[in-house]
Design brief:
Elements (H helix, E strand, L loop, with lengths): L1 E4 L19 E4 L5 H7 L5 E4 L6 H4 L7 E4 L9 H7 L2 E3 L6 H17 L1 H9 L2 H4 L17 E5 L3 H12 L3 E5 L12 H7 L2 E4 L13 H6 L5 E4 L8 H9 L5 E4 L12 H5 L5 E3 L8 H19 L9
Parallel strand pairs: 1-2, 1-3, 3-4, 4-5, 6-7, 6-8, 8-9, 9-10, 10-11
């Protein structure tokens, strides 16, 4: 059996892929441009992808491919209807990155709320050592205890973040299409108006695209912190950046972008050096432990396929 990895570099150079060798021939490409996908899938029965788009244009009339394993929970990069017509199975991985993404989410919130980069820069610059005062207390920061933390999307990650937020003494409100018992669930507009901290964890679909738009950003408190670790297109990127540039938001933290990596024409490029902006290169999901769990989970889906069973199947 031939297995192809089309964007292996996104899994990290330190991840041991040798366990895949038990299946047969393994071909790993660090990355694959759209125009090369069809050629590289020739003869493959299994393909592992992270961000590569698979659809009618890139898969075409391939007659060997049997199963697609996505190294992620989100699957907006795969045309499920086309794969269903072709009889190609599609699997994703759920729950593997919960702790990793929750950790980055909370790290961003705390960094922005406490102005850690600015205080650290003051010490690194040598200014602290040259001074005569034992401390520095500007920019002013506030405790998050007692603040309202709004969580958009209450899946595994959202629930983990909610637990941490409550441990810090925050009041947690949440927005989810189907309210969850035990949580204070509300509509998205009410959440945007009332939350001091907003973290976004919802999947990208037709109902969530541009969910955090210009109108809702305008509803937010002028000192609100917004963190997006879901999908780039869940937020109106230009509106979000304009709000922080114009002082209409307290800070933003973003790990996901509509185009990755974002280029110099991205609104994020304009704000990347602002003190109240924390931008990371789509790494929230990628702790070593999470990536190891991800590979293990995909292999379990391949094993199930070889036994004639379905596991973690989207189609």
């Amino acid at each position: 059996m031939k297995i192809v990895l089309l964007d292996a570099a996104t899994l990290g150079d330190d991840l041991d892929l040798s366990p895949l060798n038990k299946y047969g021939e393994v071909v790993a490409y660090p990355s694959t441009a759209p125009e090369l996908v069809k050629e590289r899938l020739e003869g493959a029965e299994v393909v592992l992808i992270n961000k590569v788009k698979l659809n009618e244009n890139t898969v075409g009339d391939n007659d060997t491919l049997k199963i697609i394993c996505i190294a992620a929970t989100g699957f907006d990069n795969v045309d499920l209807e086309f794969m269903k017509k072709k009889g190609i199975g599609v699997c994703n991985v759920v729950g593997y990155s919960t702790d990793s993404v929750a950790q980055l989410t909370v790290s961003m919130v705390l960094s922005l709320a406490t102005h850690l980069p600015e205080y650290n820069a003051f010490v690194e610059s040598g200014e602290y050592s040259k001074g005569s005062v034992a401390n520095k207390l500007t920019p002013v920061y506030h405790e998050i205890a007692g603040k309202t933390w709004g969580i958009v999307g209450l899946g595994n990650i959202g629930k983990k973040v909610a637990a941490v937020a409550e441990a810090f003494g925050c009041k947690v409100i949440a927005n989810k299409r189907n309210p969850v018992e035990g949580y204070d669930c509300t509509d998205i507009d009410t959440l945007c108006k009332n939350a001091d901290i907003i973290t976004v964890h919802t999947p990208l679909n037709d109902g969530t695209r541009n969910l955090i738009n210009e109108e809702r950003i305008a509803m937010m408190k002028p000192d609100a912190i917004v963190v997006n670790v879901a999908r780039g297109a869940v937020c109106d990127e230009r509106a979000l950046c304009n709000a922080v540039k114009e002082g209409r938001l307290g800070g933003i933290g973003v790990d996901v972008y509509t185009a990755e990596p974002f280029r110099e024409d991205s609104p994020y490029y304009e704000v990347r050096n602002m003190a109240n902006v924390c931008l990371t290169p789509h790494m929230a999901w990628g702790s070593k432990e999470a990536r190891e769990r991800c590979l293990s989970d995909m292999m379990q889906s391949i094993d199930a396929f070889l036994r004639g069973e379905k596991r973690s199947r989207l189609v």
